[in-house]
Design a protein that fits this description.
- This protein has 2 domains: about 150 residues, Aspartate Aminotransferase, domain 1 (Alpha-Beta Complex); about 230 residues, Type I PLP-dependent aspartate aminotransferase-like (Major domain) (Aspartate Aminotransferase, domain 2), CATH 3.40.640.
- The chain is built from 15 helices and 17 strands.
- A 7-stranded mixed beta sheet has the order 4-12-11-10-7-5-6, with helices on both faces.
- Strand 13 and strand 14 form a beta hairpin.
- It is an enzyme of class 2 (transferase).
- Involved in both the arginine and lysine biosynthetic pathways.
- It is found in: Cytoplasm.
- Pfam families: Aminotran_3.
Length: about 400
């Protein structure tokens, strides 16, 4: 007989790096979750933009169970069929020539930054080492990636940090042009800053970064951990902007809930990695790549990608209706199904409070800092579920305004 599990056990047994909700979800289907008491929730969080096909999608479940009957893990002394199939799908669908698989977005960004430094060393061993990143960015929790992220609250307690990382204002091309030099080995940027408040990059900003990186022989890295795999209505956001990076990182939605990450790049950069230069124990394992292959097949279709833009309109139209009545948001922004609603001046700093009220009403959403409510639901969420979730949000908004 299994022991009863309670929320209190988190406080007793878990390292306190999270502050989870008081309820424990135990079952999911589509865009719905149920907790231990049987209460239902509409899921607008998607596991932080991970569950791109909702919970327990039947085709993804079938891919998982079929591969589980074959082989789960081999180690990097061997290759496997699912990883090679997935690599080809990603290469065929993007600018990339080569793929490196890992387990998370942080690991993908770690690999990208290491590769950029390695490429810089090959050109000027002691001088071409600077990485330009941006204020309010988020690239992961390893020491290297948290240093590249432009949020000191996540990095300052772990000093000394890796050197030669410069942070500049996001969407300020002039600042980059004034600073970039022959010492710069890479520029890393999110096409939409997710954790930083759901702030899209200006098209001219990304185009300018591309031109500057080409001019100064620096590697342009797009962190598409949150924006990738259909989230914006394109398979990857760079395709919407028409700006091609040298390296792209992807994770979250790639596995549809199963942990996997990847770094995509071109041959001229990939060749700098050789056996022993970089690696991972679990990356590219058959179980993860079989699942991700099916997820990619399902998402990379005109029907699903086109449906993301339609759902964006459903969301924003109703959010604007709610806001017209309650004036709780100063701006509703984002692309596709990565949407941010910034709190108005009257409710500044109360995004978390609204998020908690929404959970009480049976809606799971996200925050992106203290002032932004964030939505990243399933890419195939039905219109009726969007309507029900936003009905619940409206009740939470009414309570906040009371």
């Amino acid at each position: 007989m299994e022991q009863q599990v309670t929320r209190q056990q988190f406080n007793e047994y878990m390292v306190p790096v999270y502050a989870p909700a008081e309820f424990i979800p135990v079952h999911g289907a589509g865009s719905w979750l149920w907790d231990q008491s049987g209460k239902d929730y509409v899921d607008f969080a998607g596991g932080i933009a991970v569950n791109a096909l909702g919970h327990r999608h039947p085709a993804v479940l079938q891919a998982l169970t079929e591969q589980a009957e074959k082989v789960w893990h081999l180690g990097n002394g061997y290759t496997n069929e699912p990883v090679l199939r997935l690599a080809k799908k990603l290469v065929d669908a993007t600018f990339a020539d080569k793929v490196f698989f890992c387990n998370s977005g942080a690991e993908a960004n770690e690999g990208a930054l290491k590769l950029a430094r390695l490429v810089g060393h090959s050109k000027n061993a002691h001088q071409k080492t600077e990485i330009i990143a941006f204020n309010n960015a988020f690239h992961g929790r390893t020491l290297f990636t948290v240093s590249a992220g432009g949020q000191p609250k996540y990095s300052q307690d772990f000093a000394p940090l890796p050197p030669a990382i410069t942070h500049l204002p996001f969407n300020d091309l002039a600042a980059v042009a004034d600073h970039i030099s022959s010492r710069t080995c890479a520029v890393i940027v999110e096409p939409i800053q997710g954790e930083g408040g759901v702030v899209p990059a200006d098209p001219e900003f990304l185009k300018g970064l591309r031109q500057l990186c080409t001019q100064y022989d620096a590697v342009l890295i797009f962190d598409e951990v949150q924006t990738g795999v259909g989230r914006t209505g394109e398979l990857y956001a760079y395709q919407a902007y028409g700006v091609v990076p040298d390296i792209l990182t992807t994770a979250k939605a790639l596995g549809g809930g199963f942990p996997i990450g990847a770094m995509l790049t071109v041959d001229r950069l990939a060749e700098h990695f050789q056996p022993g230069t970089h690696g991972t124990t679990y990356g590219g394992n058959p179980l993860a790549t079989a699942v991700a292959g099916k997820v990619l097949d399902l998402i990379n279709t005109p029907e699903v990608l086109g449906g993301v833009s339609v759902r964006h309109e459903w969301f924003t139209e109703r959010l604007n209706q709610i806001n017209h009545q309650y004036h709780v948001f100063s701006e509703i922004r984002g692309m596709g199904l990565l949407i941010g609603a910034e709190m108005s001046e009257r409710f500044k700093g109360q995004a978390k409070q609204l998020n908690q009220l929404a959970a009480e009403e049976g809606l799971i959403s996200l925050i992106a800092g203290p002032n932004v409510l964030r939505f990243a639901p399933s890419l195939i969420i039905p219109q009726t579920d969007i309507e029900e979730g936003l009905n619940r949000l409206e009740r939470a908004v009414a309570r906040l305004c009371a």
